[in-house]
Specification:
This protein is α+β, with helices and mostly antiparallel strands. The protein is globular and about 40 Å long. It comes from Plantactinospora siamensis.
């Protein structure tokens, strides 16, 4: 039971690593871990959401981003984001790190990514019930009546302005990534 994927970094609310712990130690509600949260859009600017499987312990049948998952100890947000996309929806895409937030109810530091993808998906049924594209207008209109995770709610203010800035025929839906550091976090060096 000492497999690397069983260990996670313990962080504080400033996302500073304090140590590592086995994933079972996070269930007591005292330790904060890291999560990568991925929002994917197609070239028409529609966001892909997935409905979590009914068997999930947390938020069963809630709508969430394209993929999400816990970082392994020492793993970067970006590496985790790519791993989770492959595992949950069978997709690979370029990703831009948009920022992070602390989810106090979940005791998770959440790194948010946006990417564009128009290919096929291979859904992992233990994780995903179904997937569907939503226009930003439909999300704005319907999200109050939808069962959506707090990660979607907290990510939309980061995602929607960037989606509007990069999507569309003039750019062909391509993302122009912001400068980022080696771990997928924004480069704060100013250059």
């Amino acid at each position: 039971m000492n497999q690397p994927e069983c260990w996670r970094d313990v962080v504080n609310e400033a996302d500073e690593v304090l140590g590592q712990a086995h994933k079972n130690e996070f269930v007591n509600g005292e330790l904060i871990c890291r999560v990568a949260f991925i929002m994917l859009a197609n070239s028409r600017g529609e966001l892909l959401l997935h409905q979590r499987a009914a068997t999930k312990k947390a938020y069963p049948l809630y709508w969430s981003g394209a993929a999400a998952g816990h970082l392994h100890a020492g793993e970067t947000y970006e590496a985790c984001a790519h791993r989770e996309m492959r595992e949950e929806i069978g997709a690979e895409a370029g990703l831009e790190f948009l920022g992070r937030f602390y989810s106090q109810p979940d005791l998770e530091m959440v790194g948010v990514f946006l990417g564009f993808y128009d290919g096929e998906f291979t859904i992992e049924p233990r994780e995903v019930e179904r997937i569907e594209y939503f226009t930003p207008e439909r999300l704005e209109r319907d999200r109050k009546s939808m069962k959506i995770t707090s990660f979607v709610e907290r990510s939309l203010p980061l995602v929607l302005p960037r989606l509007r800035a990069v999507a569309g025929p003039s750019r062909g839906g391509a993302v122009e990534p912001a400068p980022s550091g080696p771990d997928g976090t924004p480069d704060d060096s100013g250059g």
